[in-house]
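Researcher: Structure prediction, please.
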Amino acid sequence: MPGKTNFDLILKNGTVVLPQGTMAADIAVRDGRIADIGRFSGAAAASVADCAGLHILPGIIDTQVHFREPGAEHKEDLATGTLAAAAGGVTCIFEMPNTNPLTTTPEAMADKMKRAAGRAWVDYAFYFGGTHENARHLAEWENLPGVCGVKIFMGASTGALLSATDEEVEAVLKNGRRVVAVHAEDEMIMNENREKILGTHPHVRQHHVWRSVESSVSAVSRLIRLARRHGRRVHVLHVTAAEELEVLAAHRDIASVEVLANHLTLSAPECYERLGTRAQQNPPVREKHHQEALWRAVNNGLIDVLATDHAPHLLSEKDKPYPQSPSGMPGVQTFVPLMLNHVNQGRLTLERFVDMACGGPLRIHQIAGKGRIARGYDADFTVVDMKAMRTIANAEQKSRCGWTPYDGMKVQGWPVMTIIRGQTVMREGEIAGAPQGRPVFFRETLAGAAA
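Model: Predicted structure follows.
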């Protein structure tokens, strides 16, 4: 039993999701890290938070966001995007490289790190964009401070970052050793589909037909073949189709799998009829039977990581005629409420949510000191009220885009505190203090530096 030790913070009386199970416990914090877990009835602390009736989760990590800085700050920037994350109970984000300029050089990466310093409300890391042009440098550049991995786009989405051919993909895979995260849609198949399917009177309800299941399966199959050739770990992002899951299930030794909260929540054609182009994203929201396959994969352990692909655009942009309307939806602030609602509806357990949103990122990206509640780890916590009934609303969104596809949705389960390295940055919907975000560290790069 711990003695009367001085701590900076004690979280008392909560139900804590620990690696060994969910149980009642107190958590003591010192110098930004978890100092002990147990019962601390006689211990002194500078601050005590009574978490009676609440669940304490490891800080939720969103490993796929687009915060649009530099180049499109009118949609979002690093300050507003991380503020939305903090408001939604997310303590750490990994941001994507398809900004303007692209994050494909050390100079561009250093610029992002400089922009985030002192402005980010949560901890952060950035993907380095992999291309045929910079591939020969990736073994060196992928280990720059703040880099969480390498990202490639096999199919065009927002921005100009594209590695469509086998030769372009292979150039990236054979250089370096960090995990390569992949947007796996086949650009050649989609180009063929576009004219044939969209025709002269395109409608957003055709989006998931144009960006077809065959396109995704082709890209995943090609990617795995090339990854095996070079022994490179690949992380397949935002999987949407039952057929993709079947391919990936046969290659668990080399390929990890991500699914998005949007694809678990929305389905075609209903979402396109109700939301129009506001439901447009890449890869697309698909039919109900694909969503059901994703849920089976969540619950049979095939899915490693759960994320949002937060991709904000102004409503004036989203409301353009399809397909001039840009693809992408905001999601970092609604991530935790959506998934807690799914937990309360019995679609997955709270522990499985934590495994995909905390443990999965820790394992896939080799994060140092985050992703679990354990002694010595960063004191990052997402404190939630599993009984709270709330309504998601556009007016509450901190993202600069100012909207959510879930406006008006009633949910059960809500984040009530966001704590980053022992500092409370959100409590009961109110943002506290100043931006606390710092760069994330990774075991692979730390080991390389030590060597």
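Model: Residues 98 and 160 are 7 Å apart (CA to CA).
Researcher: Thanks, that helps.
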